[in-house]
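Ticket closed. Logging final result for Signal transduction histidine kinase.
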Amino acid sequence: MTDHAVFATTRRVLLVVVVVIQLGLTLPVLVTHSREASWVAFVLLSSVLVAGFVAELPAVIALPGTALVLVASILATTALPHAASFGPADWAFGLVGWYVLLLLIERPKVAMAALAAHIAFSVAWFLHDGNGDLGTAGVVILSGTSLQIGVLVMTRVLVRDARLAAEAAAEHDAARTREELARQREQDLRTGFAGQLGAVLPLLADLADEVVSAADEPTRLRCSVAAVQLRRLFAENDEVPDPLLHELTACVDVAERRGVVVSLAVSGTATPVPTEVRRELVAPMAQALAAADGRAKVSLLRTADEVRVAVVADAPGVLPDGGSPALVTVETSVHSGLVRSEARWRTT
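Final structure:
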């Protein structure tokens, strides 16, 4: 239950309490002890009650309504017969307190201030009028206000519990969301690894069955390609500020371990690139580095409209087939022992 729901429910209950007291208990007393100012006070309170029925959110009438209620309290109190304060004829004392709660249940400090002002004026008039029973006055004040203050405190407790329950529910939902995201991420990782291993496993099987030999140049090229692809896959799942550059650097590192001298040039600021696009941007460069023998130059160019990954490498052998990319444009050429490859992705 939300704060709004707690206040709305409490206000409905208070509305019923006010109606019952005003029509069932107050009206007969008013008819018996009828004075013009008392009827004016009764009409003022009734107008606030009607506004409470009509308005879905009494906040719009809270402050002016409270002012009318306090004016009605003054009129009803000053219209009492001599020495009648806190007696049967004092119909407004308890009723005004319930009106204050009805209007200010969401504002406990203002409600307490309004109740204090109401009680202070009633006590001051009691002392001014004189000849009243102090014991009876004390009992009436204590019994009436303690119940009303108890309702105010109980409402605040309910609001606190509702907030704690909402926070606990939100934390539970957040934990479930994190768990689901972690599960999905793990599944994606497994799928990605399975896809990469799908190219490695046939190679391992061929080596194990001695279908191919590690001494053959095509086999060494296949091994080099597999190493670069796996290293890029590991880098893909790292949490870094610039994932694309991180994956390029990982591929460069594998080539350098093989003895290839690689230079990496980067231009432009980091641009968000989806994972699938990064894979297709890096793949041609990874293929070229896997086949490189000697030197290679890798370039990363990023503008507002385009991301380019280019490579020029010594590649005396034939490049392996990298497949047909769907998200980027790739241009590759091999001539005179050099391979030139460029992958472009339009950001817009």
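The radius of gyration is 41 Å. No further action required.
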